[in-house]
């Protein structure tokens, strides 16, 4: 049955699909919004409903399990998601009147054609409003269970973050995960400098508020607009990229004329950054194992006007045996659990678990082994992830260096970090770990190693 395009219907469709297919919410939402006829305002509401409901799922379920007699797990999935959407609006969205939230949610229940469900939905939402005093959460949660409830994360993740970073820092990370992600862009220096691009962006959209990034000399922080839909983006004047992510290419520090490898390159954001820093001169091989993702890299390269990049569909682990010449600098931006980007992809915290880290560690070690074989003597190897899990980061690098005595941690890395990063981030011998609350950016780990000559 064809349903009317409304923000709440779109959000409900995405939430159901995320659970059924296990796909990422951001990809599903973007695809659904492209096919919708929603106004910009309703697109914003649909986005808020999807991400907000996923972010607050633990807290919403705690409430709903007190309101649904047999518990929400006994309900059909679409009814469960609809009730979460309804409670989310009542609890977290000040701009949506309670009467409208209840009415619209009940109307969706009626439209989806299940007898009795509209009455259930209406009763649950009105009970929530009547029993409002019951939903107060602890101001200073002490236990893992309370912290998981207040910040709406799974207990296993809260327990692990407390174990690794301590309760205070873990609480800061968890709170940051629930704040909306900022928007930052990386200026393409082959088109113009940061000040010029900032001026052009302001002319293109006067609503934008623009300031310089303290973390990257190519970065701008934007609020109040959507620059990715404009002409400047299409013409390659900038790339949308998180500030922490910009540090990766900057710490690899490739130079014009060098031979560089980006071993797990999709979707190509860091590939473009490497080529920009190389002034589009030298050799840059960008590989990815997934054929459909190779197209994403090619699109980035074309949009930025880069001619030096060779894009290849290849498994990095097999590259050393193909006769490929070694590289001056190798970047391994490894597949990881993604705990540093939960604010952008809140479904990660519900779809992943600690057991998956074991298989990721094995894959990361195999990729590191291959990457190391491709570094020329005296060359540089940078390993990065967007996770906070030390088994994938510090412990991975410690084990690698122990088994590869020809590599040394680059102790000069600390001095090359921007001053704010040196002051706030966690650092060690040749590595830096940025947590989400440090700069309201993604959580990132970056290690730099040098191969002996």
TrEMBL record:
Q: Which InterPro entries match?
A: MeTrfase_RsmB-F_NOP2_cat, MeTrfase_RsmB-F_NOP2_dom, NusB-like_sf, NusB_RsmB_TIM44, RCMT, rRNA_ssu_MeTfrase_B, RsmB-like_ferredoxin, RsmB-like_N
Reactions listed under catalytic activity: cytidine(967) in 16S rRNA + S-adenosyl-L-methionine = 5-methylcytidine(967) in 16S rRNA + S-adenosyl-L-homocysteine + H(+)
What is the E.C. number? Answer: 2.1.1.176
Quote the subcellular location field of this record.
Cytoplasm
| All residue ranges annotated as the SAM-dependent MTase RsmB/NOP-type domain in the record | 173-452
Any one Gene Ontology MF annotation carried by this entry is: rRNA methyltransferase activity
Superkingdom, taxonomy of origin: Bacteria
Of the GO CC terms on this record, one is: cytoplasm
Q: Tell me, what's a Pfam family for it? A: RsmF-B_ferredox
Record-listed S-adenosyl-L-methionine binding positions? 264-270, 288, 315, 333
| Top EC class for this record | transferase
Single biological process term from Gene Ontology: regulation of DNA-templated transcription
Residue numbers annotated as active site: 386
User: Which keywords label this protein?
Assistant: Cytoplasm, Methyltransferase, RNA-binding, rRNA processing, S-adenosyl-L-methionine, Transferase
CDD domains membership: AdoMet_MTases, Methyltransferase_Sun
Q: Which family does it belong to?
A: Belongs to the class I-like SAM-binding methyltransferase superfamily. RsmB/NOP family.
- What does it do? Specifically methylates the cytosine at position 967 (m5C967) of 16S rRNA.
Query: Mind telling me which PANTHER family this protein's record contains?
Result: NOP2 YEAST -RELATED NOL1/NOP2/FMU SUN DOMAIN-CONTAINING, RIBOSOMAL RNA SMALL SUBUNIT METHYLTRANSFERASE B-RELATED
What's the protein here called?
16S rRNA (cytosine(967)-C(5))-methyltransferase
Species annotation: Kroppenstedtia eburnea
Q: Source organism lineage?
A: Bacteria, Bacillati, Bacillota, Bacilli, Bacillales
């Amino acid at each position: 049955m064809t349903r009317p395009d409304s923000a709440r219907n779109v959000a409900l469709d995405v939430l159901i699909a995320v659970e059924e297919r296990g796909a990422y919410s951001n990809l599903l939402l973007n695809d659904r919004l492209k096919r919708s006829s929603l106004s910009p305002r309703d697109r914003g509401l649909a986005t808020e409903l999807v991400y907000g409901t996923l972010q607050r799922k633990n807290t919403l379920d705690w409430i709903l399990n007190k309101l649904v007699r047999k518990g929400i797990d006994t309900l059909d999935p679409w009814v469960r998601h609809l009730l979460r959407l309804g409670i989310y609006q009542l609890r977290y969205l000040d701009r949506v009147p309670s009467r409208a939230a209840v009415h619209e949610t009940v109307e969706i229940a009626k439209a989806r054609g299940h007898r009795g469900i509209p009455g259930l939905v209406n009763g649950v939402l009105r009970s929530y409003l009547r029993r409002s005093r019951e939903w107060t959460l602890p101001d200073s949660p002490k236990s893992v269970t309370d912290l998981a409830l207040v910040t709406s994360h799974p207990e296993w993740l809260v327990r692990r973050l407390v174990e690794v970073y301590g309760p205070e820092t873990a609480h800061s990370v968890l709170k940051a995960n629930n704040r909306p992600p900022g928007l930052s862009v990386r200026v393409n220096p082959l088109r113009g400098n940061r000040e010029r691009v900032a001026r052009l962006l302001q002319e293109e959209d006067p609503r934008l508020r623009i300031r310089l990034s303290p973390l990257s000399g190519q970065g701008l922080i934007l609020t109040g607009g959507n620059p990715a839909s404009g002409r400047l983006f299409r013409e390659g004047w900038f790339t949308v990229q998180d500030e922490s992510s910009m540090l990766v290419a900057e710490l690899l520090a490739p130079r014009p004329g060098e031979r560089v490898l980006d071993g797990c390159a999709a979707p190509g954001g860091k590939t473009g950054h490497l080529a920009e820093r190389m002034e589009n001169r030298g050799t840059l091989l960008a590989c990815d194992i997934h054929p459909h993702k190779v197209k994403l890299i090619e699109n980035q390269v074309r949009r930025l006007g880069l001619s030096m990049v060779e894009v290849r569909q290849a498994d990095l682990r097999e590259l050393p045996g193909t006769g490929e010449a070694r590289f001056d600098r190798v970047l391994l931006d490894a597949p990881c659990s993604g705990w540093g980007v939960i604010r952008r992809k809140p479904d990660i915290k519900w779809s992943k678990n600690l057991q998956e880290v074991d298989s990721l560690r094995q894959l990361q070690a195999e990729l590191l082994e291959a990457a190391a074989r491709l570094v020329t003597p005296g060359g540089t190897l940078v390993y990065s992830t967007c996770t906070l899990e030390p088994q994938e980061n510090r412990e991975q690098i410690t084990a690698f260096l122990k088994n590869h005595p020809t590599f040394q941690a680059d102790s000069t890395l600390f001095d090359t970090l921007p001053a704010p990063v040196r002051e706030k981030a966690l650092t060690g011998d040749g590595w830096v770990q940025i947590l989400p609350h440090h700069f309201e950016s993604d959580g990132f780990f970056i290690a730099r190693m040098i191969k002996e000559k």
